[in-house]
């Protein structure tokens, strides 16, 4: 027999499998020559006899089969007019040689399972379909032999199941409760081999436009049948499985592979085997599905099992699930299994699975999702508003609200109100949390959030709020499992829940990561998905705490270093929640330690001793600077002097609220404050070339630089260990010292010995302006205390 050609089938390709040089092996009984086979199909095409104009010579028919010639277009048009499908099937059935069915199947590229016999009747139906397609195509058509045959074999019940399942999983409920088709609002994540919430796409293998086939064959080393797709909360794990399911279902009639979508959280594994759960699932969607047929498909490896949410299985069931999954895979080893989970330890006991990772969106994917979500929005400026907010607001291009599909969806759906969010972190994070976690449950969706640790979202929020507030207060922004459990065990709000026993650390971690999507796990560490949520709940927690607790917070901040907190947004949000409460309970006690009962001089000194660790100041030798500037005809020296920043968290907060810069520098020529015991730096000079405003040739400037005082005092050693040839020297060859920098602890400045330094500070316009502003603020909030309940 002639070989089979894939994809497209010409008329000669259809005829050739029936011919064999051995007459007994001809595909058509009694038709053994090439010409006779071609002529047979002409004759059966004309039910009432072949028109005279279409009677050809034996050689012409032979050439049709070999492909060296082909029928004219008018021939196909005539057959198309009078083709009788039933007659064609009957005549073909009379002639088909049953002894060579297997050879014909092979020649036509029809794949048979080892346990299945060729089905003669279906084969005739498919041959009729293929011939009719060639007629319509005027001599060629797509090769449908294998796909049509496989489709005919498929149980009708499975086809009904596919139709119903596609309708169910092809819909998505958005955060605002609106429904849309998956393809209308879904952008497929890239899948990578590297872990992490944010990854370098150049250093990981990437699967784009994922399909189950791509996942199975991505690794050149071999077929990958079993895969765990790992992703953080809101990244789109369930939507990815829906996408994979829909894509596979659309090709079911071609492949004969049955996709099955299983939501693991809905099943209990205490009593049923996994196969029983799968049978139950299919029969719930289509009651005519036969358990025997389902198990046969599983045995033949003709199923694709999509298991959504391994991490959502009840912890008490997880080991039972692992055991039953292993048993299922042993009994039905040839099926493809893809499951999803957040990064956690629940799948550590699941063997034989390759781990791949759903990657956050890049900018192109984010823009594509925005376009899809806005397709029915009449406001043409909507996308511009969203992009401007992303670029100019505080969520930033590379932030989680842009790269996480769920959080980006929130931003897009709120676009009419984005103007309200500019500069208002409190409103933004409050709205985001309520929309994603609290209100989202009001819609009946496939993604209804079920909390393990609490009876409802409000109970979880109560505990999560305390966890955020207490950890942020201590400057704890990320955790390992040990520290996470430590701070969880200190929470008081757990006892206020209706069922405190549910609130176990593993349940709470699961809900924080997988249910509320506020945190994620990476390796052995735990992070907030966006630090703004921890900051918001810190502010909410203390804004609603009693006066005593807020004052205790303020007291704890007195001794905390400003470097404890990476930014001040949390305190700004607390202030926005309740300005008077923050001022009177948090800031007033600190300011009273500076001003209450003190003279202005005492308060001025206390301002520094309470707010700063030390004072650094520079004394310049102006005569030396001017002399060597003049000699070299150079411009003024480069800026020198060290910035002085607060030690106190509370002073930093106050300066931020007052819109004062939280730093200043002190540079003086007053040699009265040249306290030798506090000298830290000796200032040396060199001449450098400096381009100013593109001028050429470059100008020459005097550049001052610092060297540790101790090194400079030992000049012989200093010259041996430094490249001293660049330093400016006097006529005697000595390196010039242009001044010194000093550092004095603020605990010392109240000593009468250093009163000249206090005077230097008072003469500094910037210092005195900040001090006076803070003092005025103290008296302002002192008045507020008399008119509120925060005593």
Explain what you see.
The strands form five sheets. This protein has a seven-stranded mixed β-sheet, with helices on both faces. Strands 16-15-19-17-18 form a five-stranded mixed β-sheet. It has a three-stranded antiparallel β-sheet with strand order 12-14-13. The protein is of the alpha/beta class and 791 residues long. Residues 1-6 and 440-447 have low confidence and may be disordered. β9 (303-308), α16 and β10 (336-341) form a beta-alpha-beta unit. It is built from 36 helices and 19 strands. It has five domains: 8-153, no CATH class; 156-358, Rossmann fold (3-Layer(aba) Sandwich); 363-442, no CATH class; 457-577, no CATH class; 609-761, no CATH class. Residues 225-342 form the NACHT domain. InterPro entries: NACHT_NTPase (IPR007111), P-loop_NTPase (IPR027417). Pfam families: NACHT. This is NACHT domain-containing protein.
Summarize the structure.
This protein is α/β, with parallel strands linked by helices and about 800 residues long. It is about 45% helix and about 10% strand.
How would you describe this structure in keywords?
single chain, 791 residues, alpha/beta, Rossmann fold, 5 domains, seven-stranded mixed beta sheet, 19 strands, 12% strand, disordered N terminus, NACHT_NTPase, P-loop_NTPase, NACHT domain-containing protein
